[in-house]
């Protein structure tokens, strides 16, 4: 890529394909793969990423909310889309746009059956979410009979899949807990399937589940962060390439004298003569105030330059003392050589939060190697 002259998020579609194919190599030929593109495809661009995954042959896509699915349909995405957390007020839109809901408690199950009946739907595809220990969303194991009774009383919906979510699949210290979750899900699936006249697909593994629990692939696996280049398993990171690189430029360079301060609230006070650079990116773009005052950094000509003072809404200031640079030079906030997870760790955060925080006002640039 040429040097940037503005703040941009560069998205490497070649790396996306490589991550996709690596994940495919870790599952059986018969196991389907679902690509998670919620939260603007983890901060990149859901519309572009979804179409790219569709071209790669992904079996399913998943979003969190109905409006995310609608946006994909609006650009012509035809792959089945699972909506992980639909709200009942959007059920009519969901049906109209051929999206598939995750139904996770008795109330939403009944409400969706009612809407499907009113819309004269026959065997509308739905997915049933079960809570096996994450304790976030999902039916409990004790509700199986009640669910089956509702299902057998209607022809308006048909269960495409049963699924659950591992709570700590990346942490092998929690292996016993994860295996207990998997066992519980197997029992739930067996119980429900024995009481239906058809066999729904099963899925439970996320990216770390694919890597750590190959025997729990079931019929499909779900991957989000892996597609975007992160494994959450240190020894696996070499097999993934981050697809996003956040870049900006130096707008102005200052010489700061001893005793001078930098930024709001005079949060940085110089104890000697230093050189600073101002960069046009700030907390409105997703660079949290928590990165200020020396916790975060950017790369200038391959050298770390710490963020000093408070992060502003549209700007950060960095210490470039000793770095040969000039106004207009490119800086890198994160990318393949300066990974987002390492930057996030400095404020006790994770790559997901940093990636998904990048504002949509930041220009996206897509390229292939």
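Sequence proposed for the structure above (369 residues):
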């Amino acid at each position: 890529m040429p040097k940037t002259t503005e703040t941009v998020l560069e998205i490497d579609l070649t790396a996306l394909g490589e991550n996709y194919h690596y994940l495919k190599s870790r599952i059986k030929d018969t196991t389907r793969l679902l690509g998670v593109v919620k939260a603007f495809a983890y901060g990149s661009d859901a519309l572009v990423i979804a179409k790219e995954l569709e071209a790669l042959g992904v079996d399913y896509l998943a979003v969190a909310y109905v409006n995310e699915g609608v946006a994909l349909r609006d650009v012509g995405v035809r792959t089945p889309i699972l909506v992980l957390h639909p709200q009942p007020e959007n059920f009519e839109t969901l049906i109209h746009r051929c999206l598939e809901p995750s139904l996770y408690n008795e109330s939403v199950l009944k409400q969706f059956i009612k809407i499907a009946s009113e819309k004269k739907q026959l065997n509308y595809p739905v997915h049933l979410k079960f809570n096996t220990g994450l304790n976030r969303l999902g039916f409990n194991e004790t509700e199986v009979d009640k669910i089956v009774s509702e299902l057998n009383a209607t022809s308006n919906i048909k269960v495409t899949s049963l699924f659950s979510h591992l709570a700590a699949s990346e942490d092998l210290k929690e292996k016993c807990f994860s295996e207990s979750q998997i066992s519980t899900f197997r029992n739930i699936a067996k119980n429900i399937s024995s009481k239906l006249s058809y066999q729904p697909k099963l899925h439970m593994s996320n990216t770390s589940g694919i890597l750590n629990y190959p025997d729990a692939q079931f019929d499909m696996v779900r991957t989000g962060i892996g597609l975007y280049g992160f494994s959450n398993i240190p020894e696996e990171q070499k097999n993934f390439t981050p697809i996003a690189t956040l870049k900006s430029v130096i707008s102005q360079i200052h010489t700061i004298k001893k005793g001078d301060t930098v930024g709001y609230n005079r949060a940085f006070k110089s104890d000697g003569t230093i050189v600073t650079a101002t960069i046009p990116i700030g907390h409105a773009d997703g660079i949290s105030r928590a990165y200020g005052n020396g916790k975060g950094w950017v790369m200038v000509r391959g050298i770390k330059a710490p963020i000093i003072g408070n992060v502003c809404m549209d700007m950060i200031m960095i210490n470039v003392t000793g770095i040969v640079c000039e106004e207009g030079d490119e800086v890198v906030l994160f990318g393949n050589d300066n990974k987002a997870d390492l930057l996030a760790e400095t404020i006790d955060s994770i790559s997901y939060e940093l990636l998904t925080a990048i504002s949509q006002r930041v220009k996206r640039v897509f390229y292939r190697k």
